[in-house]
Amino acid sequence: MHNGTGPCYADMMGTDSEVFSGQFQTVPLSESQLDFPGKPYSLSVLKAGYCLPQTDGTFRADGTITLITGPRTILVDTGGPWDRDFLLKTLKEKGLEPRDINVVVGTHGHSDHVGNLSLFPTAVMIVGYDISDGDTYRPNQLAEGHAYTIDEHVSVVPSPGHTGQHVSVQVAGTSAGTVLVAGDLFECCSDEDSWRDLSMNTAVHEVSRQEALRTADVIIPGHGLPFRVLRS
Amino acid sequence: MHNGTGPCYADMMGTDSEVFSGQFQTVPLSESQLDFPGKPYSLSVLKAGYCLPQTDGTFRADGTITLITGPRTILVDTGGPWDRDFLLKTLKEKGLEPRDINVVVGTHGHSDHVGNLSLFPTAVMIVGYDISDGDTYRPNQLAEGHAYTIDEHVSVVPSPGHTGQHVSVQVAGTSAGTVLVAGDLFECCSDEDSWRDLSMNTAVHEVSRQEALRTADVIIPGHGLPFRVLRS
After folding, report:
1. Which of A7, A106, B60, B206 is deepest in the core (most CB within 10 A)?
2. Would you say B37 and B58 are in contact if contact means Cβ atoms under 8 Å apart?
3. How close A15 gets to chain B, by Cα (Å)?
4. pTM confidence score
5. Is B16 helix (H, G, I), strand (E, B) or coil?
6. CA-to-CA distance for A157 and A212, rounded, in angstroms?
7. Residue B20 binned pLDDT confidence (cut-offs 50, 70, 90)
8. Cβ atoms of B187 and B222 closer than 8 Å
9. A 137-176 residues with CB < 8 A to B
10. Residues of chain B positioned with their CB less than 8 A from the CB of A135
11. Domains parsed from chain B with CATH numbers
Protein backbone atom coordinates (compact mmCIF):
# COMPACT_ATOMS: atom_id res chain seq x y z
CA MET A 1 0.00 0.00 0.00
CA HIS A 2 1.93 3.03 1.32
CA ASN A 3 -0.38 5.84 0.49
CA GLY A 4 1.62 8.58 2.19
CA THR A 5 -0.01 11.67 0.80
CA GLY A 6 -0.28 10.42 -2.80
CA PRO A 7 -3.30 9.53 -4.88
CA CYS A 8 -4.73 6.11 -5.27
CA TYR A 9 -7.05 4.94 -7.99
CA ALA A 10 -9.36 1.98 -8.25
CA ASP A 11 -10.30 -0.07 -11.24
CA MET A 12 -13.07 -2.03 -9.61
CA MET A 13 -15.51 -2.42 -12.48
CA GLY A 14 -13.21 -3.29 -15.35
CA THR A 15 -14.96 -0.71 -17.49
CA ASP A 16 -11.84 1.13 -18.59
CA SER A 17 -11.02 0.82 -22.25
CA GLU A 18 -7.89 -0.97 -23.28
CA VAL A 19 -4.67 0.70 -22.23
CA PHE A 20 -1.69 0.96 -24.51
CA SER A 21 1.80 1.06 -23.04
CA GLY A 22 4.29 1.01 -25.86
CA GLN A 23 4.02 -2.34 -27.60
CA PHE A 24 1.70 -3.76 -24.93
CA GLN A 25 -2.03 -3.54 -24.58
CA THR A 26 -3.71 -4.30 -21.26
CA VAL A 27 -7.36 -5.34 -21.36
CA PRO A 28 -9.49 -5.62 -18.23
CA LEU A 29 -11.18 -8.97 -17.73
CA SER A 30 -14.77 -9.23 -16.57
CA GLU A 31 -15.54 -8.88 -12.89
CA SER A 32 -16.51 -12.54 -12.76
CA GLN A 33 -13.29 -13.86 -14.23
CA LEU A 34 -11.48 -14.67 -11.04
CA ASP A 35 -10.57 -18.30 -11.75
CA PHE A 36 -7.84 -19.48 -14.09
CA PRO A 37 -7.88 -23.29 -14.40
CA GLY A 38 -4.82 -25.09 -15.65
CA LYS A 39 -2.61 -28.13 -15.46
CA PRO A 40 -1.10 -28.79 -13.15
CA TYR A 41 -1.80 -25.47 -11.42
CA SER A 42 -4.99 -23.42 -11.21
CA LEU A 43 -5.43 -19.97 -9.72
CA SER A 44 -8.35 -18.44 -7.94
CA VAL A 45 -8.61 -14.81 -6.83
CA LEU A 46 -10.19 -15.14 -3.39
CA LYS A 47 -10.54 -11.37 -3.01
CA ALA A 48 -9.78 -8.64 -5.52
CA GLY A 49 -7.92 -5.76 -3.94
CA TYR A 50 -9.13 -2.18 -4.01
CA CYS A 51 -7.97 1.30 -3.25
CA LEU A 52 -10.75 3.86 -2.88
CA PRO A 53 -10.12 7.49 -1.99
CA GLN A 54 -12.59 8.80 0.62
CA THR A 55 -13.90 12.32 0.91
CA ASP A 56 -11.98 12.93 4.14
CA GLY A 57 -8.57 12.32 2.57
CA THR A 58 -8.23 8.75 3.78
CA PHE A 59 -8.25 5.65 1.56
CA ARG A 60 -9.98 2.35 1.97
CA ALA A 61 -7.60 -0.28 0.68
CA ASP A 62 -6.92 -3.98 0.69
CA GLY A 63 -4.55 -6.18 -1.25
CA THR A 64 -5.65 -8.94 -3.62
CA ILE A 65 -5.58 -12.47 -2.16
CA THR A 66 -4.86 -15.31 -4.60
CA LEU A 67 -4.89 -19.07 -4.11
CA ILE A 68 -2.84 -21.38 -6.33
CA THR A 69 -3.72 -25.07 -6.24
CA GLY A 70 -1.93 -28.01 -7.76
CA PRO A 71 1.05 -30.11 -6.72
CA ARG A 72 1.53 -27.48 -4.01
CA THR A 73 -1.03 -25.21 -2.41
CA ILE A 74 0.19 -21.63 -2.41
CA LEU A 75 -1.42 -18.48 -1.05
CA VAL A 76 -0.20 -15.20 -2.50
CA ASP A 77 -0.77 -12.30 -0.13
CA THR A 78 -3.05 -12.57 2.88
CA GLY A 79 -4.95 -9.25 2.91
CA GLY A 80 -5.06 -7.08 6.01
CA PRO A 81 -5.66 -8.18 9.63
CA TRP A 82 -9.37 -7.42 9.19
CA ASP A 83 -9.52 -10.19 6.53
CA ARG A 84 -8.74 -12.93 9.03
CA ASP A 85 -12.23 -14.41 9.32
CA PHE A 86 -12.97 -13.92 5.62
CA LEU A 87 -9.78 -15.75 4.70
CA LEU A 88 -10.43 -18.69 7.02
CA LYS A 89 -14.02 -18.99 5.80
CA THR A 90 -13.07 -18.76 2.13
CA LEU A 91 -10.35 -21.38 2.45
CA LYS A 92 -12.82 -23.66 4.27
CA GLU A 93 -15.32 -23.23 1.43
CA LYS A 94 -12.57 -24.57 -0.84
CA GLY A 95 -12.03 -27.51 1.47
CA LEU A 96 -8.82 -26.13 2.92
CA GLU A 97 -7.57 -25.69 6.46
CA PRO A 98 -4.67 -23.27 7.12
CA ARG A 99 -2.32 -26.21 7.60
CA ASP A 100 -3.06 -27.29 4.01
CA ILE A 101 -1.28 -24.21 2.68
CA ASN A 102 2.25 -25.31 1.77
CA VAL A 103 3.67 -21.91 0.81
CA VAL A 104 2.59 -18.36 1.71
CA VAL A 105 4.03 -15.59 -0.44
CA GLY A 106 3.80 -12.02 0.83
CA THR A 107 4.64 -9.97 -2.26
CA HIS A 108 5.87 -7.20 0.05
CA GLY A 109 5.56 -6.20 3.68
CA HIS A 110 2.71 -3.70 3.55
CA SER A 111 -0.05 -4.25 6.08
CA ASP A 112 -2.77 -4.88 3.48
CA HIS A 113 -0.76 -7.81 2.11
CA VAL A 114 0.86 -9.49 5.12
CA GLY A 115 -2.00 -9.06 7.57
CA ASN A 116 -2.55 -12.77 8.21
CA LEU A 117 0.78 -14.56 8.17
CA SER A 118 0.11 -15.94 11.65
CA LEU A 119 -2.65 -18.17 10.32
CA PHE A 120 0.02 -20.26 8.57
CA PRO A 121 2.78 -21.12 11.04
CA THR A 122 3.60 -24.40 9.27
CA ALA A 123 3.88 -23.01 5.74
CA VAL A 124 7.09 -22.06 3.99
CA MET A 125 6.94 -18.29 4.28
CA ILE A 126 8.24 -16.06 1.49
CA VAL A 127 7.85 -12.36 2.29
CA GLY A 128 9.69 -10.13 -0.14
CA TYR A 129 13.16 -11.58 -0.48
CA ASP A 130 13.03 -13.53 2.80
CA ILE A 131 12.33 -17.26 2.71
CA SER A 132 11.77 -19.03 6.00
CA ASP A 133 10.55 -22.26 7.52
CA GLY A 134 9.61 -21.46 11.08
CA ASP A 135 12.42 -19.24 12.33
CA THR A 136 14.98 -20.72 9.93
CA TYR A 137 15.82 -18.30 7.12
CA ARG A 138 17.40 -19.72 3.98
CA PRO A 139 19.77 -17.72 1.78
CA ASN A 140 18.52 -17.19 -1.74
CA GLN A 141 19.34 -15.22 -4.87
CA LEU A 142 16.26 -12.99 -5.14
CA ALA A 143 18.30 -9.88 -4.29
CA GLU A 144 20.61 -10.79 -7.18
CA GLY A 145 17.68 -10.82 -9.59
CA HIS A 146 17.21 -14.59 -9.72
CA ALA A 147 13.79 -16.17 -9.47
CA TYR A 148 13.14 -18.65 -6.68
CA THR A 149 11.74 -21.77 -8.31
CA ILE A 150 9.01 -23.57 -6.41
CA ASP A 151 8.80 -26.08 -9.25
CA GLU A 152 8.94 -26.09 -13.06
CA HIS A 153 5.54 -24.35 -13.25
CA VAL A 154 5.65 -21.84 -10.39
CA SER A 155 8.34 -19.38 -9.46
CA VAL A 156 8.74 -16.34 -7.25
CA VAL A 157 10.27 -13.54 -9.29
CA PRO A 158 11.93 -10.42 -7.90
CA SER A 159 9.90 -7.39 -9.02
CA PRO A 160 11.32 -4.46 -7.04
CA GLY A 161 10.13 -0.90 -7.25
CA HIS A 162 6.96 -0.52 -5.22
CA THR A 163 9.22 -1.62 -2.40
CA GLY A 164 12.86 -2.55 -2.58
CA GLN A 165 12.30 -6.28 -2.06
CA HIS A 166 8.96 -6.76 -3.82
CA VAL A 167 8.23 -10.13 -5.48
CA SER A 168 5.57 -11.55 -7.78
CA VAL A 169 4.53 -15.15 -8.47
CA GLN A 170 4.56 -16.53 -12.00
CA VAL A 171 2.43 -19.56 -12.88
CA ALA A 172 2.79 -21.22 -16.26
CA GLY A 173 0.39 -23.61 -18.02
CA THR A 174 -3.01 -22.18 -17.22
CA SER A 175 -5.82 -22.05 -19.77
CA ALA A 176 -5.14 -18.31 -19.97
CA GLY A 177 -1.42 -18.82 -20.48
CA THR A 178 1.16 -17.53 -18.01
CA VAL A 179 -0.42 -15.75 -15.07
CA LEU A 180 1.55 -13.31 -12.92
CA VAL A 181 0.25 -12.69 -9.42
CA ALA A 182 1.80 -9.29 -9.38
CA GLY A 183 1.27 -7.83 -5.91
CA ASP A 184 1.68 -4.06 -6.14
CA LEU A 185 3.93 -4.24 -9.19
CA PHE A 186 0.66 -3.18 -10.77
CA GLU A 187 -2.01 -1.41 -8.73
CA CYS A 188 -4.74 -2.20 -11.24
CA CYS A 189 -5.25 -2.37 -15.01
CA SER A 190 -5.23 1.37 -15.66
CA ASP A 191 -2.68 2.57 -13.13
CA GLU A 192 -0.55 4.77 -15.36
CA ASP A 193 -1.45 7.85 -13.31
CA SER A 194 -1.10 6.31 -9.91
CA TRP A 195 1.65 3.72 -9.63
CA ARG A 196 4.52 6.18 -9.57
CA ASP A 197 3.24 8.03 -6.49
CA LEU A 198 3.07 4.75 -4.63
CA SER A 199 6.51 3.57 -5.75
CA MET A 200 9.72 3.66 -3.78
CA ASN A 201 11.85 3.64 -6.92
CA THR A 202 10.08 4.42 -10.16
CA ALA A 203 13.04 3.63 -12.44
CA VAL A 204 13.52 0.18 -10.97
CA HIS A 205 9.77 -0.31 -10.81
CA GLU A 206 9.35 0.54 -14.50
CA VAL A 207 11.90 -2.10 -15.47
CA SER A 208 10.03 -4.66 -13.38
CA ARG A 209 6.73 -3.69 -14.99
CA GLN A 210 8.10 -3.94 -18.53
CA GLU A 211 9.50 -7.39 -17.78
CA ALA A 212 6.08 -8.50 -16.54
CA LEU A 213 4.36 -7.13 -19.64
CA ARG A 214 6.84 -9.04 -21.81
CA THR A 215 6.20 -12.38 -20.14
CA ALA A 216 2.72 -12.58 -18.61
CA ASP A 217 -0.53 -13.26 -20.47
CA VAL A 218 -2.68 -12.34 -17.48
CA ILE A 219 -1.69 -10.10 -14.58
CA ILE A 220 -3.44 -10.18 -11.21
CA PRO A 221 -2.71 -6.77 -9.69
CA GLY A 222 -2.64 -5.78 -6.05
CA HIS A 223 -5.60 -3.41 -6.00
CA GLY A 224 -7.88 -4.35 -8.85
CA LEU A 225 -9.28 -7.08 -11.06
CA PRO A 226 -7.12 -9.34 -13.25
CA PHE A 227 -6.32 -8.10 -16.75
CA ARG A 228 -4.98 -9.57 -19.97
CA VAL A 229 -1.77 -8.49 -21.66
CA LEU A 230 -1.67 -8.40 -25.43
CA ARG A 231 1.65 -8.04 -27.19
CA SER A 232 1.88 -6.66 -30.71
CA MET B 1 15.46 -9.55 8.56
CA HIS B 2 16.43 -9.97 4.89
CA ASN B 3 19.48 -12.15 5.10
CA GLY B 4 19.99 -12.63 1.36
CA THR B 5 23.45 -14.09 1.25
CA GLY B 6 24.94 -11.75 3.84
CA PRO B 7 26.24 -12.42 7.34
CA CYS B 8 24.29 -12.02 10.48
CA TYR B 9 25.66 -11.73 13.99
CA ALA B 10 24.12 -12.21 17.39
CA ASP B 11 24.74 -10.40 20.62
CA MET B 12 22.73 -12.66 22.85
CA MET B 13 24.80 -12.61 25.99
CA GLY B 14 25.67 -8.95 26.30
CA THR B 15 29.28 -9.90 26.87
CA ASP B 16 30.77 -7.58 24.27
CA SER B 17 32.81 -4.75 25.62
CA GLU B 18 31.61 -1.22 25.10
CA VAL B 19 31.55 -0.07 21.50
CA PHE B 20 32.66 3.36 20.43
CA SER B 21 31.14 5.03 17.39
CA GLY B 22 32.51 8.53 17.09
CA GLN B 23 31.26 10.51 20.06
CA PHE B 24 28.88 7.75 21.18
CA GLN B 25 29.51 4.75 23.36
CA THR B 26 27.07 1.84 23.38
CA VAL B 27 27.06 -0.39 26.44
CA PRO B 28 25.18 -3.68 26.57
CA LEU B 29 22.73 -4.02 29.43
CA SER B 30 22.45 -7.23 31.41
CA GLU B 31 20.42 -10.10 30.02
CA SER B 32 17.86 -9.61 32.77
CA GLN B 33 17.26 -5.92 32.11
CA LEU B 34 14.23 -6.21 29.91
CA ASP B 35 11.88 -3.85 31.79
CA PHE B 36 12.05 -0.08 31.76
CA PRO B 37 9.51 1.41 34.18
CA GLY B 38 8.44 5.01 33.79
CA LYS B 39 5.70 7.57 34.03
CA PRO B 40 3.40 7.52 32.35
CA TYR B 41 4.81 4.83 30.05
CA SER B 42 6.76 1.67 30.87
CA LEU B 43 8.37 -0.73 28.43
CA SER B 44 8.85 -4.45 28.62
CA VAL B 45 10.80 -6.55 26.14
CA LEU B 46 8.60 -9.63 25.78
CA LYS B 47 11.15 -11.42 23.61
CA ALA B 48 14.64 -10.34 22.67
CA GLY B 49 15.35 -10.93 19.01
CA TYR B 50 18.22 -13.02 17.71
CA CYS B 51 20.04 -13.85 14.53
CA LEU B 52 22.16 -16.98 14.70
CA PRO B 53 24.11 -18.33 11.71
CA GLN B 54 23.80 -22.11 11.36
CA THR B 55 26.41 -24.46 10.03
CA ASP B 56 24.37 -25.20 6.90
CA GLY B 57 24.33 -21.59 5.72
CA THR B 58 20.85 -20.80 7.05
CA PHE B 59 20.07 -18.42 9.92
CA ARG B 60 17.72 -18.76 12.84
CA ALA B 61 16.21 -15.35 13.41
CA ASP B 62 13.40 -13.56 15.14
CA GLY B 63 12.61 -9.92 15.76
CA THR B 64 12.40 -8.36 19.23
CA ILE B 65 8.86 -7.94 20.59
CA THR B 66 8.27 -4.98 22.93
CA LEU B 67 5.21 -3.98 24.95
CA ILE B 68 4.62 -0.36 25.98
CA THR B 69 2.04 0.23 28.71
CA GLY B 70 0.57 3.46 29.96
CA PRO B 71 -2.21 5.76 28.75
CA ARG B 72 -2.17 3.58 25.63
CA THR B 73 -1.09 -0.02 25.25
CA ILE B 74 1.28 -0.39 22.33
CA LEU B 75 2.98 -3.46 20.88
CA VAL B 76 6.08 -2.86 18.81
CA ASP B 77 6.73 -5.70 16.36
CA THR B 78 4.99 -9.04 16.64
CA GLY B 79 7.72 -11.59 15.93
CA GLY B 80 7.27 -14.27 13.28
CA PRO B 81 4.19 -16.45 12.66
CA TRP B 82 5.75 -19.17 14.87
CA ASP B 83 5.51 -16.73 17.83
CA ARG B 84 1.71 -16.68 17.79
CA ASP B 85 1.10 -18.88 20.84
CA PHE B 86 4.05 -17.39 22.75
CA LEU B 87 2.73 -13.87 22.14
CA LEU B 88 -0.82 -14.70 23.23
CA LYS B 89 0.44 -16.49 26.37
CA THR B 90 2.86 -13.71 27.29
CA LEU B 91 0.23 -11.00 26.89
CA LYS B 92 -2.16 -13.08 29.02
CA GLU B 93 0.49 -13.35 31.75
CA LYS B 94 0.50 -9.56 31.77
CA GLY B 95 -3.28 -9.51 32.09
CA LEU B 96 -3.82 -8.51 28.46
CA GLU B 97 -6.05 -9.85 25.74
CA PRO B 98 -5.29 -8.98 22.10
CA ARG B 99 -8.19 -6.52 22.06
CA ASP B 100 -6.46 -4.56 24.85
CA ILE B 101 -3.67 -3.56 22.46
CA ASN B 102 -4.54 -0.07 21.20
CA VAL B 103 -1.70 0.34 18.69
CA VAL B 104 0.48 -2.21 16.89
CA VAL B 105 3.64 -0.87 15.29
CA GLY B 106 5.46 -3.04 12.75
CA THR B 107 8.83 -1.32 12.41
CA HIS B 108 9.08 -2.76 8.90
CA GLY B 109 7.47 -5.47 6.82
CA HIS B 110 9.92 -8.35 7.29
CA SER B 111 8.35 -11.65 8.27
CA ASP B 112 10.13 -11.88 11.63
CA HIS B 113 8.52 -8.59 12.67
CA VAL B 114 5.00 -8.59 11.21
CA GLY B 115 4.24 -12.27 11.71
CA ASN B 116 1.22 -11.76 13.97
CA LEU B 117 -0.67 -8.68 12.85
CA SER B 118 -3.87 -10.74 12.50
CA LEU B 119 -4.08 -11.19 16.26
CA PHE B 120 -4.95 -7.48 16.54
CA PRO B 121 -7.73 -6.63 14.07
CA THR B 122 -9.08 -3.84 16.29
CA ALA B 123 -5.80 -2.03 16.91
CA VAL B 124 -4.56 1.00 15.05
CA MET B 125 -1.96 -0.59 12.78
CA ILE B 126 1.26 1.23 11.90
CA VAL B 127 3.48 -0.83 9.59
CA GLY B 128 6.36 1.14 8.20
CA TYR B 129 4.89 4.38 6.91
CA ASP B 130 1.33 3.03 6.63
CA ILE B 131 -1.20 3.89 9.34
CA SER B 132 -4.55 2.15 9.23
CA ASP B 133 -7.67 1.50 11.24
CA GLY B 134 -9.28 -1.57 9.73
CA ASP B 135 -9.01 -1.03 5.99
CA THR B 136 -8.98 2.76 6.27
CA TYR B 137 -5.52 4.17 5.61
CA ARG B 138 -4.78 7.67 6.86
CA PRO B 139 -2.32 10.00 5.14
CA ASN B 140 0.64 10.98 7.28
CA GLN B 141 3.98 12.74 7.00
CA LEU B 142 6.36 9.88 7.85
CA ALA B 143 7.68 9.77 4.27
CA GLU B 144 8.50 13.48 4.63
CA GLY B 145 10.61 12.77 7.70
CA HIS B 146 8.05 13.85 10.29
CA ALA B 147 7.38 11.75 13.37
CA TYR B 148 3.85 10.51 13.98
CA THR B 149 2.91 11.53 17.49
CA ILE B 150 0.87 9.06 19.48
CA ASP B 151 0.96 11.48 22.42
CA GLU B 152 3.44 13.83 24.09
CA HIS B 153 5.45 10.86 25.39
CA VAL B 154 5.39 8.37 22.51
CA SER B 155 6.05 8.93 18.86
CA VAL B 156 6.73 6.83 15.78
CA VAL B 157 9.82 8.17 14.05
CA PRO B 158 10.86 7.45 10.47
CA SER B 159 14.18 5.58 10.55
CA PRO B 160 14.74 4.43 6.96
CA GLY B 161 17.69 2.45 5.73
CA HIS B 162 17.22 -1.20 6.67
CA THR B 163 14.15 -0.82 4.51
CA GLY B 164 12.89 2.25 2.73
CA GLN B 165 9.95 2.84 5.09
CA HIS B 166 11.38 1.62 8.38
CA VAL B 167 10.16 3.25 11.62
CA SER B 168 11.15 3.17 15.29
CA VAL B 169 9.19 4.08 18.42
CA GLN B 170 10.51 6.67 20.86
CA VAL B 171 9.28 6.69 24.46
CA ALA B 172 10.24 9.55 26.78
CA GLY B 173 10.12 9.67 30.58
CA THR B 174 11.26 6.22 31.61
CA SER B 175 13.57 5.64 34.57
CA ALA B 176 16.30 4.94 32.00
CA GLY B 177 15.56 8.14 30.09
CA THR B 178 14.40 8.11 26.47
CA VAL B 179 14.04 4.60 25.11
CA LEU B 180 14.02 3.90 21.38
CA VAL B 181 12.40 0.67 20.25
CA ALA B 182 14.57 0.58 17.19
CA GLY B 183 13.43 -2.35 15.07
CA ASP B 184 16.24 -3.25 12.67
CA LEU B 185 17.70 0.25 12.70
CA PHE B 186 20.13 -1.56 14.97
CA GLU B 187 20.57 -5.33 14.74
CA CYS B 188 22.17 -5.55 18.17
CA CYS B 189 24.62 -3.63 20.35
CA SER B 190 27.76 -4.55 18.44
CA ASP B 191 26.49 -4.61 14.88
CA GLU B 192 29.18 -2.52 13.21
CA ASP B 193 30.23 -5.47 11.05
CA SER B 194 26.79 -6.68 10.14
CA TRP B 195 24.22 -3.93 9.73
CA ARG B 196 25.42 -2.75 6.35
CA ASP B 197 24.97 -6.14 4.67
CA LEU B 198 21.37 -6.21 5.86
CA SER B 199 20.63 -2.63 4.80
CA MET B 200 18.80 -1.50 1.70
CA ASN B 201 20.46 1.92 1.77
CA THR B 202 23.50 2.28 3.98
CA ALA B 203 23.89 6.03 3.54
CA VAL B 204 20.31 6.74 4.58
CA HIS B 205 20.55 4.09 7.29
CA GLU B 206 23.69 5.65 8.78
CA VAL B 207 21.94 9.01 9.09
CA SER B 208 19.03 7.31 10.87
CA ARG B 209 21.42 5.52 13.22
CA GLN B 210 23.30 8.68 14.10
CA GLU B 211 20.05 10.48 14.87
CA ALA B 212 19.07 7.65 17.20
CA LEU B 213 22.44 7.75 18.97
CA ARG B 214 22.02 11.50 19.47
CA THR B 215 18.61 11.22 21.10
CA ALA B 216 18.10 7.85 22.80
CA ASP B 217 19.44 6.82 26.21
CA VAL B 218 18.52 3.18 25.70
CA ILE B 219 18.06 1.40 22.38
CA ILE B 220 16.10 -1.83 22.02
CA PRO B 221 17.44 -3.40 18.81
CA GLY B 222 15.73 -5.84 16.50
CA HIS B 223 17.98 -8.85 17.03
CA GLY B 224 19.61 -8.50 20.42
CA LEU B 225 19.35 -7.25 23.97
CA PRO B 226 18.75 -3.61 24.90
CA PHE B 227 21.81 -1.38 25.27
CA ARG B 228 22.61 2.01 26.75
CA VAL B 229 23.91 4.96 24.75
CA LEU B 230 26.46 7.23 26.39
CA ARG B 231 27.26 10.55 24.80
CA SER B 232 30.57 12.28 25.47
Report:
1. A106
2. no
3. 24
4. 0.93
5. coil
6. 10
7. low
8. yes
9. 137-144, 163-165
10. 60-62, 80, 82, 112
11. 23-231 (3.60.15.10)
